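Q: what sequence does this backbone want?
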């Protein structure tokens, strides 16, 4: 099984249904030989989320800790069918990684049958980076259209290992999404969506599914920190780790 050494989707106790601190996450990631991880707590529309000051203050986190390369970000929420999200533009511009998800408590248009319009707005928004755990049967969209559009706009599609535990009704659609990414040559990331430090770097079920469909490793953009950094800087036009105050630890 291939190794994914940079985790693009992790949570801390700032998202109050997660259970580990930033330091605990970094300690465990170092213990298992990761390159690093992105800290991406929930945007403020979620009931468990930190205040937006949390995201304004991420510049205080170290970017190298116990040998781990740290990127700062958020898992922002799609709020409605128009693709509005819950962090201001001035914050989003500073973040290394902007993950975007539909979470039912934060999304007001749950009565819609098709959510393609929402995802189209996200994919064409220059401030977003990764479409996360989008396989929910409640929020279906035109996978072919959005995934092709993601490739055009240099956005990544997430295959989320946590889904295999907590969103099992999504797994069939996640497989379909991965198959379309393979067919269209659209880049993906494989993430843990860790809510506890010892889940960082755990992608076994997601990778098992990708192996079953013979998904090409060259389309997985977070196998190493350097590969992810190169994609984000060269294709997304972002400078990784630019927003920092503290010294390295």
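A:
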């Amino acid at each position: 099984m291939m190794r994914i050494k940079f985790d693009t989707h992790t949570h801390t106790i700032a998202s109050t249904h997660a259970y580990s601190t930033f330091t605990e996450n970094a300690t465990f990631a170092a213990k298992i030989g990761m390159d690093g991880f992105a800290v991406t707590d929930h945007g403020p529309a979620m009931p468990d989320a930190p205040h937006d000051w949390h995201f304004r203050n991420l510049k205080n986190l170290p970017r190298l800790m116990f040998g781990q390369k740290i990127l700062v970000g958020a898992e922002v929420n799609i709020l409605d069918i128009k693709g509005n999200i819950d962090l201001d533009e001035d914050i989003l511009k500073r973040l290394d990684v902007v993950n975007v998800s539909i979470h039912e408590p934060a999304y007001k248009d749950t009565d819609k049958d098709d959510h393609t319009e929402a995802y189209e707005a996200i994919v064409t928004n220059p401030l977003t980076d990764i479409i996360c755990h989008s396989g929910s049967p409640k929020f279906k969209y035109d996978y072919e259209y959005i995934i092709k559009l993601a490739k055009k706009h240099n956005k990544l599609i997430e295959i989320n290992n946590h889904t295999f535990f907590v969103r099992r009704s999504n797994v069939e659609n996640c497989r379909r999404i991965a198959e379309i990414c393979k067919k269209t040559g659209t880049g993906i990331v494989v993430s843990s969506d860790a809510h506890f430090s010892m889940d960082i770097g755990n992608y076994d079920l997601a990778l098992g599914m990708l192996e079953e469909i013979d998904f090409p490793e060259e389309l997985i953009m977070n196998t190493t920190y350097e590969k992810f950094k190169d994609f984000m800087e060269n294709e997304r036009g972002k400078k990784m780790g630019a927003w920092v105050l503290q010294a390295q630890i």
